[in-house]
UniProtKB/TrEMBL annotation, chain A:
The entry's keywords: Membrane, Transmembrane, Transmembrane helix
Protein name per UniProt: Transporter
Transmembrane segment boundaries: 32-57, 69-87, 128-146, 152-175, 208-230, 242-261
InterPro entries: ABC-2_transporter-like
The UniProt record lists the keyword Transmembrane helix: yes
PANTHER family per UniProt: INTEGRAL MEMBRANE TRANSPORT PROTEIN (PTHR36833:SF1), SLR0610 PROTEIN-RELATED (PTHR36833)
Automatic annotation (TrEMBL), chain B:
Protein name: ATP-binding cassette domain-containing protein
SUPFAM superfamilies tied to this protein: P-loop containing nucleoside triphosphate hydrolases
Segments forming domain ABC transporter: 7-252
One function term, GO molecular function aspect: ATP binding
GO terms (BP aspect): response to antibiotic
Location in or out of the cell: Cell membrane
Organism: Streptomyces luteolifulvus
CDD domains linked: ABC_NatA_like (cd03267)
Length: 273, 325
């Protein structure tokens, strides 16, 4: 099978399984409504915390509220997309521990697609909605000297950011083949990374920013492109061209995550029953 | 396809690296040879029982045959396919039922799981409907299709799982303990169904079990595995010879008497006037009966064939002794 038809098959299987999970959750209608509502409330409060901070100060690390909203919106939207599509991958560890992962292996269809769709939860849509709202508000209120490259960079950044976060989810899942109780560690990187990116790079120490740029390239999700769009100097004194690197970085991340996934799957050893 | 067989297993091994914590940060590494140079072939349409004590390596073998586990050594082919290399291609040609797990969707009506199989395996519509109707009839699932799986009993769920594994017309069906925890009636239903499947469709069946009646009623061939090695491969009846089994002569005397003396037969049990004599299965029963009848006041007698469970239990025990010594 060519890579292309495998991708198509993967998407088909993903849709089928995600559909089953949505139907399963809908059988518990009340609980579904309640969790969806609760989720929306909690994600909503996330940005309120930042608003409260700005009630005390005018700037955060030299960034104004609209600028921070822009930054926040970029990260939250990109993360939201990855979280909706792959956010449940942390249940893989539990499936490996109890042996039910075996079942996925005897079905046709790419295992990655089956695992990605496992425990698909529509309630995660709340994050995307909230991210888009904050991003929209930021764009409306922020002071930008718009140009064609800046306007083009915006959608490219969102797509690349979602891909970078997705790679992080897949790599974290791959790690669970080695350590089945690594779900917490995975969440520390994904959710933690998202939280980190909601604040300007200037509030963090140089070493942390360096790590988030060169080791775990989260800075490409929003810090670098947003700095360029806002006519601010790029963190770490990087040249402006680096702001256009997100697509390349995201492709590299996805390739690395794909390799990690393959290695993890190959090392799978099932359980003793 | 080669002449060799539909399933070909050639000196296959599986070694697990087991790490155990022996103290803070101290770990001990040990290797478990779960399957140790196992070879066999299964022809298309055969129905084979795979038995052995707990931890013998049955499930590990099945997992390698289905592509779940990668063998540590040896060669494995199912329908000419190397299972772990071409898992997805193989998936369309095999059906798997794990007695301890389910493929069904817990919160949804049974029929929803079947609809998923229909689309996942891309089963042509007409074929799907035909197979579903047949399976529903044979496995008696009609009343259960609209019931959420979590409300099914164990036996009902097992029948549901078997149907789910067969909707795509697999050429081979692996069953790992399909009758575990089922009552007599459910077991009979499952066995009757498997016999029919094998006879009608020629589906190759490999089943592991701890219930020897499964084997007696279904399989013309049985493989016994212990400590990862095949101890026996042949017809069920042949196990008696290998197992050095004994038959039992039960005699009812006129009154209570001291144990009968009729070597090489020996008395294994006395209960009032009734006595049980064990003698080698290969010896003639007639000679023994004649001798006993000549010397003792007989009222009635019967000969019992060796109990297959006992034969196998003896085989496991012998093997364990050999390993220990
Ligand atoms: N994933 C694993 N990791 C480590 N050891 C394993 C694993 N799976 C099986 N084993 C070991 O391999 C051996 C064979 O196990 P297997 O599950 O194949 O036995 P079995 O014949 O199916 O037994 P049972 O009748 O109890 O189901 C056992 O010693 C078991 O502890
Ligand atoms: Mg087993």
């Amino acid at each position: 099978m060519g890579e292309r038809s495998r991708l198509a098959e993967g998407l088909r299987i993903y849709r089928l399984i995600a559909g089953m999970w949505i139907r399963s959750l809908l059988t518990y209608r009340t609980s579904f409504v309640l969790t969806a509502f609760g989720n929306l409330l909690v994600t909503g409060l996330d940005f309120v915390a930042i608003l409260l901070m700005f009630a005390q100060v005018d700037e955060l690390g030299g960034w104004t509220l609209p600028e921070v909203a822009f930054l926040y919106g970029l990260a939250a939207t990109a993360f939201g997309v990855a979280d909706l599509v792959l956010g449940s991958m942390d249940v893989l560890g539990a499936r490996i521990r109890d042996g039910s992962f075996d079942i996925l292996l005897v079905r046709p269809g790419p295992v990655l697609a089956q695992v990605a769709a496992d425990h698909f939860a529509l309630r995660r849509l709340g994050r995307i909605i909230q991210g888009v709202l904050v991003l929209g508000w930021g764009l409306l209120t922020v002071d930008v000297d718009w140009s064609v490259p800046k306007a083009l960079l915006l959608p490219v950044t969102l797509i690349s950011g979602a891909a970078i976060f997705s790679a992080l989810f897949v790599a974290g899942a791959a790690f669970q083949f080695v350590a089945q109780d690594a779900a917490e560690a995975q969440n520390a990187f994904t959710y933690g990374g998202n939280t980190l990116l909601q604040f300007p790079p200037t509030v963090f120490g140089r070493d942390l920013v360096r790590g988030a740029t060169f080791v775990l390239p989260l800075a490409f999700v929003n810090w670098l492109p947003a700095s360029y769009v806002l006519d601010r100097p790029l963190p770490l004194g990087l040249p402006d061209q680096v702001a256009f690197a997100p697509p390349l970085v995201s492709v590299a991340c996805c390739a690395a995550a794909g390799l990690a996934w393959r290695a993890g799957l190959r090392s799978y050893r099932s359980t003793g029953s | 396809m080669t002449e060799g067989g539909f399933i070909e297993v050639d000196r296959v091994e599986k070694v697990f690296d087991v790490r155990r914590k022996t103290g803070f940060l101290r770990r001990e590494r040990r290797q478990v040879r779960a399957v140790d140079s196992v070879s066999f072939t299964v022809a298309r349409g055969e129905m084979v029982g795979y038995i052995g004590p707990n931890g013998a390596g049955k499930s590990t073998t099945v997992k390698m045959l289905t592509g779940i586990l990668v063998p540590s050594g040896g060669r494995l082919r199912v329908a000419g396919i190397d299972p772990s290399r071409e898992r997805t291609r193989l998936a369309h040609r095999i059906g798997v039922v794990f007695g301890q797990r389910t493929t069904l969707w817990w919160d949804l009506p049974l029929i929803d799981s079947y609809r998923l199989m229909h689309r996942m395996y891309r089963i042509p519509d007409a074929r799907y409907r035909e197979n579903l109707d047949r399976l529903v009839e044979l496995l008696d699932l009609g009343a259960l299709l609209d019931v959420p799986v979590r409300q099914l009993s164990l036996g009902q769920r097992m029948r549901g799982d078997i149907a789910a594994a067969l909707l795509h017309d697999p050429e081979v069906l692996y069953l790992d303990e399909p009758t575990i925890g089922l009552d007599v009636i459910s077991k009979a239903k499952v066995r009757g169904f498997l016999r029919e499947l094998n006879a009608e469709r020629g589906t190759t069946v490999l089943l592991t079990t701890h219930d020897l009646q499964d084997i007696e009623q279904l399989c013309s061939r049985v493989m016994v595995i212990d400590h990862g090695r095949i101890m026996y491969d042949g017809p069920l009846a042949g196990l008696h010879e290998v197992g050095e089994s004994e038959r039992t002569l039960v005699v009812d005397l006129e009154r209570e008497l001291p144990p009968i003396d009729a070597a090489p037969a020996r008395v294994v049990r006395v209960e009032g006037p009734r006595q049980w004599l064990a003698f080698p299965a290969a010896e003639s029963a007639a000679a023994l009966v004649a001798r006993v009848a000549a010397e003792y006041p007989l009222v009635d007698l019967s000969v019992r064939e060796p109990d297959i469970e006992a034969v196998i239990a003896k085989m496991y025990a012998d093997q364990a002794e050999r390993v220990v010594s």
